[in-house]
Amino acid sequence: MAEHAIDAVLFDVNETLFSLEPLGPAFAEVGLDPAAVPLWFARLLRDGFALAAMGDHRPFSELAADSLQGINPQLADEAVGRVLAAFRTMPPHPDVEPALQLLHESGVPALTLTNSSVEAVQGLLVGAGLDGYIRENLSADTVGRWKPAPEPYRHAAEHLGVEPQRLVLVAAHPWDCAGAQAAGLRSAWINRASVPWPRVYPAPTATDDNLPALVATLLHG
Predict the structure, then answer these.
(1) Phi and psi angles of residue 112, each rounded to the nearest 5 degrees, phi first
(2) Counting beta carbons within 10 angstroms of the beta carbon of residue 207, is it exposed (0 to 12), middle (13 to 18) or buried (19 or more)?
(3) S-S: 204 plus which of 10, 186, 189, 193, CB 3.0-4.6 Å?
(4) In the chain, where the domains are located
């Protein structure tokens, strides 16, 4: 087997592997503006980050529900449940399976590292037929701090028994890539939104707008 510069690849999940697209119709079904999906997701992340900065933690599903009711305080629990159910059926981006197949053929293990729960991520992977490519799902719930706090990334390296610099995080979010690098890992940015890299963060190890090409760079770069 070829020698690679990395021992394993961690993938963020929401937006990196799976598209938020189905949430627009789910918002509309419960009377919310589909255009509010990005705002809702940004508020959800904001609250998780703020709690981590304060040394606190709440599960992703709890913050997701709270952020929905922040958009519409009159939203019934049943409506919140319908939106969160749609979150569990998000489709993978078309380039995900080819990228995971490339890693599988190389012998480099793929894992997920997410602020969501292990169970939610496993459900998405099983529903998409991708679970066979993923060795393990890791969650920030284990350490009680959301990414981009350093604890989730360092836990992943310790859990795998590898040096942090031999581990790379792939994410669609620059803040996630920057958090991984601050914790001693490498990072790879999948630029799903076709936007410039924020100058406030150090540059990632690699970047591309195509996931298989990005994985190939990590394996052979």
Answers:
(1) -110, 150
(2) middle
(3) 189
(4) 8-19+90-220, 23-87
| 23-87 matches 8-19+90-220 in CATH topology | no
What are the distances in angstroms from CA 87 to CA 36, 55, 81, 121, 174?
15, 27, 10, 10, 22
pLDDT digit string, tens, across residues 86-144: 999 999 999 999 999 999 999 999 999 999 999 999 999 999 999 999 999 999 999 99
For 22-74, the pLDDT digits (tens) are 899 999 999 999 999 999 999 999 999 999 999 999 999 999 999 999 999 99
Task: Report yes or no: 191 and 207 within 8 Å, Cβ to Cβ.
Answer: yes
CA distance 1 to 183: 29
Give CATH for domain 23-87.
1.10.150.240
Distances in whole angstroms, Cα of residue 125 to Cα of each of 53, 96, 130: 30, 11, 5
Q: Which fold has domain 8-19+90-220?
A: Rossmann fold (3.40.50)
